[in-house]
Write a structure and sequence with these properties.
385 residues, alpha+beta, protein yfey like fold, eight-stranded antiparallel β-sheet, six-stranded antiparallel β-sheet, 7 helices, 22 strands
Length: 385
Amino acid sequence: MIFLISGCNQSYQGSPLVPDFPVPEEASLDEKQKDFETYRYDIRGSHHGIRADYLVAIQDWGWQERKDLHQEAVYIFEKNGEFVSLNVLNSDNNALFTIKKVTMEDLDKQSSPEDQPGEQPTDDNPINHQLHIHDDYDTWIKKLGTPVEVRSENQSFLLYYTREGMGVHIRQNKQETEKVWIYPQYLTPAQDVLIPFTRQEVMEQFGHPDKIDRETCYETAECEKYVYDQEDQILTIRFSFNDVYVDRMIYEKKDPAADFTSWDEEQLYDFLQDVKAHTQKSYQLTFVQKAEIIAHYEKFFSPELSKKIVDSLFVQTDEGWKVPDGDAGYIFFVPAKESDNSDVVIDFEEDYIRLKVTFETGMYSAIEYVIEYDEKPLITEWQME
């Protein structure tokens, strides 16, 4: 059996910004600015690229992809000397994409590292003093300004710039900054750093995020958050429940494991063995609730894949939820590194690892795992043919 997402017949209409560029009719216009549009719709294909059927539609409308200008999740298309950039925004819960009309001059600027992302520092620009997780405590104070009160708790410093609430929380480990929370609504204007207070200011300062997600805030509300991958640090910006103002900013060190090009075959197989040991425990257990099993699998699998695995393996009995004898669903195994009966291909990319093993004989002709990073390495795709 094979688990795949197949496309269906899809209708398209012209973008209001670029009338001869196709947009899926089911896509809803989320935001329209003078030079770009944001749509709420899932156009993602493998590894957060563009879905194949949408690429075909774009080509049918006369646009050609300029792969030489492709950068991360930004795809460039050309037609009769005109250019359109399409940015696929990676989010598990909110699939978005943007369309922007650009010129070759814009693309030339984007190809230079110093022009990415958003507005860049100059001698007269306060962005020149960017906040960085490796700054020591004194440097954070210099950039953010002198607070009216500082409270110390264990390894943390709580900075108050107004009497209404805490403006900054700096957590250290052996005098090294580990994580910083910033609450713009409780800051006063500082001279050396520019703190965004609204979504528009975030976009102007940092550009499009690498990931968009939502999380619970204010007890029952849900707030949108932008995640920026900034070399050796991660910046997460959460907006207030009205999605307009910045509620909180978090700077934290990037986990080296997030870059899969740093992995090798031994580290990959160690990870797979850990997954196997963890999943085998579940085969012997009886769970009271289905949610318990899903949570058990979410240690090594994405939430969506965890649910698929549980649905394929577990049944409810009088004793509880368990795997029946002789089931042949998602039974995890670690392929042999070398075998006369199989061939293993491993791709180590920055954002993911793809392992595919093909068999000459056996129950399956091929099995493929894709591992991605979401706060920790997770298996996000598991296909069996």
